[in-house]
Amino acid sequence: MKKNKLLLTALAVILAMGVMVAPALAYFTAHTEAAGGINLDLGHKTTIDEEFYDWGKKITVSNEGPESCYVRVQAFSSERLEVTPSGAWTDGGDGWWYYNGVVDAGKSTDVLDIAIKDKAEAEIVDGQIVDVAVVYESMKVVYDEDGNPDPADPTDPTIWKTKGNPAYEGSGE
Amino acid sequence: MKAGRKRSSVFTGALLVLAIAALLFGGIGSARAVLTPSDEYIADIATKDIALELYENGDPVEDGALLTGLLAEGESLKIGQVYDESLTVKNTGTIDQYMRVSVYKYWTNDGKRTDLDPALIKLELGDGWVEDTAASTPERTVLYYTEKVVVGDETAPFVTGIGVDPSLATMVEQTTSEDGKTITTTYKYDDLMFNLEVSVDGVQDHNAADAAKSAWGVDVTVDEDAGTLSL
Hints:
The complex is a heterodimer of chains A (173) and B (231).
Chain A: H1 2-24, E1 29-39, E2 44-53, E3 56-66, E4 69-77, E5 81-85, E6 89-91, E7 97-99, E8 112-116, E9 132-140
Antiparallel strand pairs in A: 2-3, 3-8, 4-7, 4-9, 5-8, 6-7
Chain B: H1 2-35, E1 52-56, E2 59-60, E3 82-91, E4 97-108, E5 112-113, E6 121-125, E7 129-131, E8 140-145, E9 159-164, E10 172-176, E11 182-187, E12 193-204, H2 208-216, E13 221-223, E14 228-230
């Protein structure tokens, strides 16, 4: 009986001390938090438009977006071709014609005129099909830390031989 | 034995009388307190208050929402560009504090995407903060402000810029239509959201090392005279 009383008393003292000690260990603290995000709308869809006339066709490439891109074009034929650029088209000297500028979403390139050169009447065979194949590549515009296009010069052939050009062998993840 | 019982009864009786007397006089005292008019004395007791507020580009963050003004309306994020994003903390309480922040960056698309690389979200960190590399992960950066933040003061920015790594542009696929006229380019990170989340903690400057240990569970070294903190 006496032992129980002692135990109860001890327990009461410990509880009382615990109640008193807890506030002494509390420190002043503060907390706040915040969050936010930005959605990425990547990718671009480009279409080449060909307007035919006698012995040639006029090429433009349009970008439906949503992002800006660079463009280059190359033409192949068994015939001799003459390319007449307008606006920002630049001969890369490597068979490609580079559009020297950013094609923003919703915009098109200037016209690139590709024609069969000096086809003599005598060479024309009735029913003969003459192919002029045109291929093109588009590459996303990436920016430097200050928001300027990087690389800045899309007429530099070396930038098209990087992973930034999806058509380049070795690109992709 | 009988004498002992008698003494006990007397003691108990005395206690009873004392208790009744205490109750009676206590009651009367209370009644007097109610009935007796007295002069009024007003004492201003200032309680200590600890508080802090997160600031984004010089303005307090409202409703806990970050990055709301990063882009103008209709503007798309330029991959590779580092946008100005200044995050600071202000001591808005009445006691000086030491502070730490945890900065989280991650991708979401109908929920958190832990399979995508948070390192592709670029954060530029500011000076005056020391990183707890042991607590940091690719997703979380834990920073401690190295100076005491006195009442009303603001820290140096712990984040100064944010952007997306340009290497993200290489994770791409292209498909060409059957007629060869249309090329569609799609990116692995298209239609994803990059997220920035910030958690800020402050502790009192007195016994700050113990306070940090108690509140945050970390060991920090505080020079209370110099008002500096180190890990």
